[in-house]
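Bench log, entry 3. Co-assembly request; chain sequences pasted below exactly as received.
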Amino acid sequence: MSNHHLKNRSLVFGGLVIVISTIFISRLAHIQLVNSDWSNYAARLTEERETLDPMRGQFLDRNGKLLVANIASYDILFTPRKSKNLDTFKLANLLELELTELVKRLDKAAAYSRYVPSVIEKQLSAIEFARISKQLMEYPEIKYKTQSIRSNLAGVAGHLIGEYREVDRDDLQNNTLYHLGDYKGKSGLEAKYERHLRGEPGARFHIVDVRNNVRNTLNELDTMPNPGKDITLTIDVALQEYAEKLLNGKRGSVVAIEPETGEVLALVSSPFYDANSLTGKRRGLVYDSLRKHNWKPLYNRALRGTYRPGSIFKMVQGLVALDEGVISTKTIINCDRSIIGCHGPHSADDFTQAITHSCNPYFHEVMRRVVQRGRDENPLVDVSMGLEVWNKRIKEFGFGTKLGGHIPGTRAGAIPNSPYYDNIYGKNHWGFRTIFSIAIGEGELLTTPLQIANLAAIIANRGYFIEPHPIRDIGGRGKPLGLDSLHEMSVDVKYFESVIDAMQNVIEDVHGTASRAKVEGITICGKTGTVQNGELEDHSVFMAFAPRENPQIALSVYVEHAGAGGAWAAPIAGLLIEKYLTGSVKYTARENRIIEFQP
Amino acid sequence: MRRRESSIRRNIDWITISLVLVLMFFGWINILSATSNIELLDWLDWSGKGGKQLMWMTICFVLGFFIINIESEFFIRTSVIQYILTLLLLIAVLVIGKKIGGARSWFDLGGFSLQPSEFAKPTTALILAWYLSRDATKWLSIKVRLVSLLLIGLPAGLILLQPDAGTVLVFAGFIFVLYREGLSGNVLIIGFTVLLLSIATILIGVTSFHYPYFGVGSGIGLFWIIWLIGGALVIYLFKELSMPRRRKKVAILSIISLFAGLIISVGLHTGMEKVLKPHQKERIHVLFGIDVNNPDADYNIRHAKAAIGSGGLMGKGWMHGPMTAYSFVPEQETDFIFCTIGEEWGFLGSAFVIFLFTFLILRVLIIAERQRSKFTRIYAYGVASILFMHLLVNVGMVLGLAPVIGIPLPFFSYGGSSLIGFTFLITVLIRLDGERLSVLR
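Structure output for the full assembly:
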């Protein structure tokens, strides 16, 4: 071939160069302009997002007194890369850890990352940290970071408020809001109102190098955290504290409600625990010992304890019977102790006396009249139909329902109905004689202390209640929706006064069962209950409201295995009413007797 | 004589010189960015890589000035000596060289190191020009082909022993020189076909197929079977369709290509499986987007692409690329310098650099074709081929289009040897071109 022909080959080569360059430029355009994957990937590599934790909303009591606040705790971090000749023995001493435990944590940190600091000890209190910080900061591999934790200023209402602590694996899987090491409300109101308390975290963006060291800060994308909302509770700290003091060393509960509003003034389950003992580095130990304790201190008896209501239930029976028209307040029924046992010296009571004396045969007959109405020729079918009517009316009082929807962890208890007995005995195979024990609040009935306190509120209100709730205000916007709706009883208002007369007698009558609840100058209306426990000592139960004319407080008191209702629960109720209405307690002897009592 | 010199100076190709100067200066700016950061920038710090590169650039200016003032006859006459010297250096480096990154490619000269393979490129271009431009040389003879291959293969083989696969690839680029001087275009076509076949072999090699009676194996076996049966069918059709007197020739050629293809495919597959080290195999697999078990296998290329991709249209600005500043990209002042351009100068900057290189190579081709001297033309083709291969392999690598093979970007990458080598390469050409009007050959 001649050079002239070969000259054209420069075009082939030149063309190839242009083709390759075009491919390169197209590829550049694709990576840089069209496809954002690579620039996103670069951002993931170089930008680190630092979350700025928002200030968590605080809890205040009904009078605006700070109840739960945020305080700083200190997490100790270890960076394996910076570690040289670490004296683990000395460090273990400083952190008050077992040497083997410390070594285990250091190894774990090293296995996770050599460059990223890992937490080796959590939640040192400010005092603990101040004591060791000077020595600690001499270690180049040790850093610290503050973590906001909760401080319950009075140490009360631990059950209700619940725990705020580090998220676990489930939280991370179920909720993208949370990241490893974040804290959240894990139980109680802390969990229920997490959304309001949490606030909006802010973010600050850093540029990191290939070893994940922060090298620079971007400013334009930063957002400031938005603090969480403060929550005002309906709890009265003074009352709550006093109730805890009285119940200390006993098993039981106190639920106090402001009748007119349904606001919960005190909610105590005993044994209780200092809410602050579940924060800090010893949480695990404390929680474990609480969990294993025989008396189940973690169990909220006030909401979840289900007891047979006993004599207290007679008032509900009476109100329903009066409204059904099967008795009147003047109805006298023989105290026929051959059908069912009774107590006290009485023989033929009218309605008010029957409640005052807690007459069993009286209410046995009342119940029979309510359910056996001759609706059907077959007496068994008649009872079955009657029980359905009875069940509906009882449930009006909040029994057998999850009362207190805004308090986390409530239980419904049980009010039996016809299908329930059909299930046990077979349809039409049971009659009044089978179920009569529910007439006097025994048998298959189960109610919670909260429901009994609510009953006291219903009677105090003469026929209505508002769902008991613990929240007064969220972030200045008032109560959550639905907390002001009235639940009115179909029982006529006029019948309540007879019951209230009886309740006043319970305290003031010479034969009344609860004279120990009497407080000079305050008209207290109450009713004792004694829940039988087979061979074990009875539970002492009392419900009351005061003052009669203008009820400010309605409450239920349970003391497990303590004996008769009048013996222990009644005086506790009296002290609480006195404390709440007068602000102080004059009956110091009564107070001392209660405090010293260890059933 | 004086008139001749001034005519040469008038004929100096200032376009090429300007292109090279722009590339060098832009490269230096990027090396500064890749090796320091804005807070610590010290323009006059001669111990840093930016300062050292500036020193090498100064040396190159002086060297270039000298070369442009040397008679081209000197390069023609000394090409053999230069070539032999280079070979000796390449042998010496295998014995007394310093091993860096697994390759024995450097002489340690105290404060700096010297890489003889960078000088082997221009001297091979010179010897090839010298050999092929002799009056007696007739291209078509087998002897000329073999000698040319030997001249290219000797330094390439020595470099392969270091081992430095990237530079060896550059020597493969001399095929363009031979092509321009008359090597059949079929060689390029065959080369392209072999490339396609190799890609197919690698892609199919990692598939699996269930063979009846034999169990699961690589899909490549099936590919070979289909290749043979399908090939036989195609040959039969071809034979039937072609004119009777050419049938025999067609049949023989087809059968040869069929088996040659099979041998190449089998050889490559076996080579991939048995000879290559796992990390080399991974690099090739990464290139083809084949999943590799080792998550770090594509670390370099992933970070390189991320750096380039994050540049967008305008780039993050000089000294403001975090991927560059905070060491996310490996070897970022040498082989991966293009990432810094991509991240900090964006699409505009990096496309501009590719454009500059394209312009430079095309300019060298234009220079080549305007020569009366065969020597200069062949040498110019050598220069174009070397520049082209560097662009192809280096930019192809950082863009994820070619396997990760360490090779500098001409005039850009940090390193004295490479800078001096390329300065020598280009200034010799400029001097030869300057004499184009006074040469009669």
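Chain B touches chain A through 49 residues (CB under 8 Å). The first strand of chain B starts at residue 98 and ends at 100.
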